[in-house]
Amino acid sequence: MRTLIKVAWRNIWRNPARSSLIVAAITVGLIAGNFISAASVGWVNQSFEDTIERRISHIQLHTPGFIEEGEARHRIEGGLTIVQELQEHPAVLATAGRTVLDGMAASPHFSAGVKINGINREWEMNVTGLHEKIENGSFFTEEGRLPSVVIGETLAGKLRADVGSRIVLTFQDVEGEMISASFRIEGIFTSSSTVYEERIVFVQTQDINELIGDTDAVTEIAVLLYDHDAYKHITEELRQTYPELTIRNWEDLAPELALQLGMTEQALLWIIAIILFAVGFGLLNTILMSVLERTRELGMLMAIGMKKMNVFGMVMLETIMLSMTGGILGLILSFGLVRYLHTIGIDLSAVGGENLREFGYSPVVYPDLEMMFYFKVAMLVVVFAILAALYPAVKAVKLVPAEAVRQE
């Protein structure tokens, strides 16, 4: 077997130019495929982290009526007590009780429908880290005559408002009456999603609750877990503990994200497979040409007693070794490229990347791939090498020694 491997390796480099070309093709194909895959995974991972850690958290609790109507009267009974109970749960990293209302935000220049989030500053810092996204101003640290509001950069632009400007928020109180109140913009936050920036505004719980007529009101409870993979188990546990509430996890709240996560790796492996399928034709042609050029030589080997299975194995080895040479180079180089770009990121702002924010993606992507993905790609290289080798190998063993040795 060792001798067969040596012979196969030497046969590969009888025509170094042709072999080098197919190795280069495999290497470049894998680098391109892994780069595309890493960029896609990076976008999806960033979207997941931004959605879970910055917006919806792992689990949310509401009353059934609030989900249907979004009104202040559908409050969680004993909401503050439930928040405290959840904060003591061993699987819970952080919990935030909120007063969430549908309303309008207006300035002298523009008005828009918004979702008003009444938040506790400390709770929200632990659950969403919103304070880290403040681009201008501060995060509820100032006191003044008017209650403060923090809005997104996109909404601020449409309202033509800045830090210190006044806007009017309109919403319903617990009795269903319309309330309008002036708020001073204390901070402006940024997000990977322009829709989120335009749609969501934040005020302090004590300010909004006083206006709606219930100082202890909680309409939404957000839960962030230590272990992301435990969300299904904890969701079921909370449903049994609080049967009167509707409890949804991030898969229920963002089903499109769950679908995207589930399909991404399979779709990317298909992309790699298509690239390798195309390169496989070049590999097949290379090995077939090598077999045809050595027809007389192979005939002589079989004439002096070399078994057909050894001839078959030699051609298979040549193909697999040639493929793995390009595959190993491609995997090593693509791994280094992905790790480097994961560190520095790729800023697409200069080439229209800002438009990605309309779809909830950051214009700066940090490519990333798990080691298992590289292993799966290596397996694909071997599979396609074997498939590409079958026809030339079968062609070789079908040679008739007496006829083959007479060929020039």
Please sum up the structure shown:
By secondary structure, the chain is an alpha+beta fold. Helices cover about 55% and strands about 20% of the residues.
Quickly list its features.
408 residues; alpha+beta; 2 domains; six-stranded mixed beta barrel; 12 strands; elongated
Please describe what this structure looks like.
The chain folds into two domains: 2-51 and 258-404, no CATH class; 64-244, no CATH class. It has 15 helices and twelve strands. The chain has helices at 2-12, 16-56, 64-69, 79-87, 121-127, 153-159, 194-199, 205-212, 231-241, 250-253, 255-293, 295-303, 308-344, 371-397, 401-404, and strands at 59-62, 92-106, 111-119, 134-137, 148-152, 166-172, 178-189, 200-204, 220-225, 246-249, 346-347, 364-365. The protein has a six-stranded mixed β-barrel, surrounded by four helices. α11 packs parallel to α14 (371-397) and α13 runs antiparallel to α14 (371-397). The longest helix is centred in the first third of the chain and has 41 residues, at 16-56. It is elongated, with a radius of gyration of 31 Å.
Produce the secondary structure layout:
Elements: H1 2-12, H2 16-56, E1 59-62, H3 64-69, H4 79-87, E2 92-106, E3 111-119, H5 121-127, E4 134-137, E5 148-152, H6 153-159, E6 166-172, E7 178-189, H7 194-199, E8 200-204, H8 205-212, E9 220-225, H9 231-241, E10 246-249, H10 250-253, H11 255-293, H12 295-303, H13 308-344, E11 346-347, E12 364-365, H14 371-397, H15 401-404
Parallel strand pairs: 3-8, 5-7
Antiparallel strand pairs: 1-9, 1-10, 2-3, 2-6, 2-9, 4-7, 5-8, 6-7, 11-12
